[in-house]
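Entry 14. Ran structure prediction on the chain below.
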Amino acid sequence: MSEPIRFYYRGAVHEVRDAAPTQTVLQHLREDLHCTGTKEGCAEGDCGACTVVLGTVVDGQLELKAVNSCIQLTPTLDGKALFTIEDLQQQDGALHPVQQALVECHGSQCGFCTPGFAMSLWGMYLQLDGQKPGRKQIDDCLSGNLCRCTGYRPIIDAATRMTELPQVTFDTARLTEQLAGLKRDRLSVYAAHGQTFLAPRTLDELVQLRAANPAATLLAGSTDVGLWITKQMRELNEIIYLGHVDALKHVAERDGMLEIGAGVSLEGAYGALCRHYPEELGEMRQRFASLPIRNAGTLGGNVANGSPIGDSMPWLIALGAHVVLYGAGGERVLALEDFYLDYMKKDLQPGEFVRAVRVPLRRPNVVFRTYKLAKRFDQDISAVCAAFAFTLDGDTVASARIAFGGMAGTPKRARTAEALLAGRRWDEAALTEAMAALAQDYAPLTDMRASSDYRMRSAQNLLRRFWLETRPDAPLAHDAVNAFAVRAPSCAA
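Output, structure tokens:
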């Protein structure tokens, strides 16, 4: 029996009964609720004109995060709170400090992108507690918002100015209480227009649903599946939503590994990983995607999707990560590189799903780097993503793990180059041979992002960069583990 979608919106509980399960939140706002402040620019989570803020209660604590409404599906709102640009105006009609700052700093010209910028800034405003943000924090906050008019400087000015105006508080206790009343403890089913949206709450419910519906689409953060709907116009008749399964949202250290549940957001996963690899993963965290995408997407979904140009897999493979698979037959653990069989083909048995990813923690004498090459710093898909994890014994390579994205039909290790380096002195002669050996490991394609020649030359040069930063006589080398010739930005908490 179908149950309505219930969420908190504009000060009350809102119910939806007849929207298609694949309707986006943006479509529901504009077409059903006629709240047209939220704009559609790209319909793929790139431009940020559609940015809204979602509220959820996690372990009794309220979390408010900016996301792209153009790729989030309406049924995923069940049990959450939705805030849009219409919510910012104060009860007495006054502008919110975010809005007032944009006015004072001339942060809007044509105005089309402005609601999205305002909601991203509001999301940050709620976290600041009156403190003035730093430039890096502002840049990260606005990384998912594009503007063709202002040149961004006045918007950045507004991000600082908003904290100088009289503060407006947010009643988190009241919202937390409201959301507690919407919480479901069992599987919910929403059906309309010939489509079904299944939302389990427990791991057992998920296992049973997956076994009974092996062809159903698994939905986590919707950062890929959303585009199947908005760009590829796919008809998804059965969807199993993972976002309410708390058993998939754990982060735990055990046996020298950091286990990250498949339901942990990219922002949460990278935040946990950066506590162990702050220098090595700091820049990758910032460049992986915009903050709204990281707030919505999951590391487990990124791994399960297995795109050859995904930025997480190369460094996970280089570090020796494992993927934990689960189904009616129990648990199965694979080395991540063995999970990918061919282009978009994984070693998944019927009824199985990704339950977690296990990442080795820092080990003595292992030097690790990951690098991303793309046309833009923010919000761009890699032409080449490289990762290196070498175990060094003095000036000798005891073992080498090299992985690349964008160089083959799957994220792939460079086994020929690795074998050549094992037991060799980490010097320029060994480097030169290993660079040449990459041509035996990869035959990259030419596409809209880069030519085959560019990719190969870039991969070789990134290996050289790694050598320059980690060779025994590197200018800033302190020891084999902490040699950082080029410092990546550190991770914010």
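The radius of gyration is 23 Å. Will compare against last week's run tomorrow.
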